[in-house]
Amino acid sequence: MRASLSGITVRFGALTAVDNVSLDIEPGEIHAIVGENGAGKTTLMNVLFGLVQPEAGAISLDGKAMRWASPQDAIRHGLGMVHQHFMLQESMTVLENIVLCAEPVTRFGFIDFAAARRRLAEVAEEHRISIALDRPVGRLSVGERQVVEVLKMLYREAEVLILDEPTSVLTPLEKDRLFATLRSFRSAGKAIVLITHKLDEVMELADRVSVMRGGRLVRSGRLSETSKEEIARGIIGGELPPARQRTARTPGEEVLSVCDLQVSGRGGAIGPLSLSVRAGEIVGIAGVSGNGQAELIQAVTGLMPLLSGEIMLCGRPIGHLDVEDRRRIGMSYIPEDRQRMGLALGATVSENANAGRDDRAAYTRGPFLNRAAMARFARQLIERYRIRVGGTSAFASTMSGGNKQKLVVGRELARDTPLVIAENPTWGVDIGAIDFIHGELMRKRDEGHAVLLVSTELDEVLALSDRILVMYSGALAGEVAGAEADRERIGSMMTSRAADALPEVA
């Protein structure tokens, strides 16, 4: 099926998100759409999928004009979309999620789950996909949840598949298997749209690439006719920044100390873990997702109770303190999940930018909030981090994923605390923003702050860390000095606990 967008324009208040864009999506191709955060990539595909109504423009499938009243219309005509933040009901099983709103029924009006299982068995066999249909989604790994989203599209017989940042939180093995699955879809004649910031993945997988900047389509063509450098220049509108160099320095006093820490994990107890972070150093934690990194960070930040052990921050024991008290002593936290933990999506950009700062004298007038001062601070973050949004009074829910991430990063680094915990800080942000955020973390380190970095991006850990700790199976597998670390050495200390999340595809 060939999908075409012609002259699409979308505005959100004063913000023009998509500006007169025309694009063709061909069957049997993987079409990558790249661009800065807020460039309009996801909004354009949301138009194609029926989630956003354009102010101008038209949609056609195989030359026939279409107009969607809702995403259900698009789904019925063969479109499917996997969003950056999954649209799954965690309390329901895999099978229930897949058939939701598309349930087969018996002649007596009951849901025919047996028929759904048979249909899914056919789809799974065709594409060599395997997953337990009766497991609750809330118990699945990120990679397994993505399998569910893909199966939802196939169950509805989608011919145009749209995937928004599909590898942001996948392990390397899960990513490889997803790519094999997408190649299988391409061989079956399906049209695939891949929205991504990862240019290495574009070069590995795509047949065609389109670059958007500031809501406009600035270039589009076959991948074989361009280069990674040309694509990058198109994204940022100029030359790439030079690679950052980490200067050696002697760290100061211990800021964070974790001693014999044990916490509950999905497969049993995590730990005992012992580590320290000193002033003026970045300690990176590498490891395949699911090996205890999340539980460690939740314990340090106060989001998970300890089974045993001790945590010290700035010389004070904090294991018994709640999140607010730990932040008050001197902890900033950039969480992995910006949707549920980093932001209040129903609040404004200004309110989110000032979260955790409301008790400061500069932001209050007696018992009331000083809204003007809050807006000034929010504007500073918007300008410094190049956050694309319709203003300080816009709701956080209207922002793209990458711009949400930049808002969280800017707010937390502005708190100027002795300890910064950064968990996948560049998830879903563009190449220019990645470089800026890396620079901000290194600036914090050079100013004498302690930084604990957890990232599933090994290159990020290698680029920033003075020391690297590797986690495997809930324990620390070893420590390597940043200057001595390389991909092979760190990679040999890592393994995947999610080997069956995505299947092999021939």
Automatic annotation (TrEMBL):
Gene3D superfamilies: P-loop containing nucleotide triphosphate hydrolases. GO terms for molecular function: ATP binding. The keyword tRNA processing does not apply. Residues 3-239, 250-498 form the ABC transporter domain. InterPro entries: AAA+_ATPase (IPR003593), ABC_carbohydrate_import_ATPase (IPR050107), ABC_transporter-like_ATP-bd (IPR003439), ABC_transporter-like_CS (IPR017871), P-loop_NTPase (IPR027417). Keywords: ATP-binding, Nucleotide-binding. It comes from the Bacteria. Belongs to the ABC transporter superfamily. PANTHER family: CARBOHYDRATE TRANSPORT ATP-BINDING PROTEIN MG119-RELATED, GUANOSINE IMPORT ATP-BINDING PROTEIN NUPO. This is ABC transporter ATP-binding protein. It comes from Chelativorans salis.
